[in-house]
Amino acid sequence: MAIAIGSAKAVLTNRLVRGGIMVGAALVIVFLLPRPDGVDPRGWRLLAIFVATILGLILQPLPMGAVVVLGIAVAALSRAVTAPVAFSAFANPVVWLIVVAFLLARATVLTGLGRRTAFLLVRGFGSSSLRLAYALAGADLLVAPFVPSDTARVGSIIFPVARSVAEGYGSHPGPTARRLGAYLMQSVYHVGCTTSAIFLTSMAANPLAAELAHKVAGVEITWLTWVLASAVPGAVSLGTLPWLIYRLSPPELRLTPEARRTAQEELRGLGPMTRGERKLIVILLAVIAGWVTQPWHRLHPAVVALGGLSLLLLTGVMRWDAVLEERRAWDAFIWFGGLIMLAEGLLSFGLIRKFADWFSTHLQGWNWLPALVAVIVAYTYVHYGFASMTAHISALYPAFLMLAMANGAPALVAALALAYFSNLNASLTHYGTGPAPILFGAGYVSQVTWWRVGFVVVLLQFVIWLALGLAWWRLLGLC
User: 268-291, pLDDT tens digit by residue?
Assistant: First the structure.
């Protein structure tokens, strides 16, 4: 009992300290930092609330949704924003797209389609540890367009398969970790960061980046534009990463002939494809087709996604109770909506533009290309201070996009490059995005190894996405 009470007190103290940091940061901005000339006092208060909210998303004294609710409440109570503005973002179609995308992800888990896809690829390509890593990468790529939660996709679908295969070969955390598990965990994670970048709908905050790009730069990033621009650098990344990690952190076991047998046993246990899985495949393909053809029919992607959810409900693939039970979707509805409101408020008060103008003074005289590279590199390494790709995008994407454009970078190229690296930067740490604590927490890889490999992976991504990628975007006529 005494131990439990002591533990509870320690948790409470830790939360109070983290909450105190949030409040302290806001107070420093409001009362100690000089407000720049021309900045509305309401905008300065909103900046303090925004900074405190972002710190809350990083430190998490409370769950993310609760932190953002507090931010909304304080913004309205302090009259930094009006009541209609405080609640405005919850009518934003991007927020609803994210909610429906989470629900589509739940459908793939409920029907077992995600696991079946992964095991089919392992059965076909799992004869060696390297081929096995590529098979898992292929599984991730196949489900990525319609599973926008990287945590759900990598953590709930791919990770259990990788762990079961590793354990099947006697690779467990500890002395046998390097036999196979350490390699698979790292490969799955870094590939997951890349697949999150390839599709507009493969990471929950990607639509937020697209929305901010539209508001800040006036460019429209459709599902098709996003995937066309990512196709070549994304393919090269996926083709290179398992091999690179194989060289950086090689498994002791090179051949894995039993992986196919394990996958076959799992598939036998799943049985034939169910009617629900077949219906889900048809509906998901229809949703993807709707997103691809958006330039022609002009329906918002959220409307297309809502149509797909309606079909899931009408065909019985998903029950309404399951919709209500998807807590992550409704949690995202709260904190995404709140973050969009706060970010739009900073834009409306001109604070982000002032930051970009100040930063741009250090890049004056640079050609737009090296300036863009410098902006992206800085934007990437700042992620060492973030535990969420969403928080990173919300806090810094608009400012860095303005900075790149102020130095002459084409708006669409800058918007896409920053959006892609909003995902790729998560490779740096073991806390950079949702799946990171899952795969790192499995205990196969030390923190030193994880950070060493992640640092090299990000260097490779710079080469691929900023050299080959820019050449590809020029060929597409984007710059």
Answer: 888 999 999 999 999 988 988 887
Q: Which of 153, 258, 252 is nearest to 197 (CA)?
A: 153
Provide the 10 A C-beta neighbour count for residue 183. Answer: 29
Q: What average pLDDT does the segment 165-171 reach?
A: 80
How many angstroms from the chain centroid is the CA of residue 245? 21
Determine the Cα angle at 410 with ends 407 and 416, to 5°.
110
* pLDDT at residue 376 tops 90: yes
Dist CA 84 CA 235 (whole Å): 44
Lookup: tokens for 108: 């793939």
Domain residue ranges in the chain: 93-328
Report how far Cα 131 is from the mean position of its chain's Cα atoms: 26
Cβ burial, residue 46 (10 Å; 0-12/13-18/19+): buried
Burial of 244 (0-12, 13-18, 19+ CB in 10 A): middle
Q: Is 255 helix (H, G, I), strand (E, B) or coil?
A: strand
Q: What is the pTM of this model?
A: 0.74
Structure tokens at 97: 């797209």
Count CB-CB contacts under 10 A for residue 235.
15
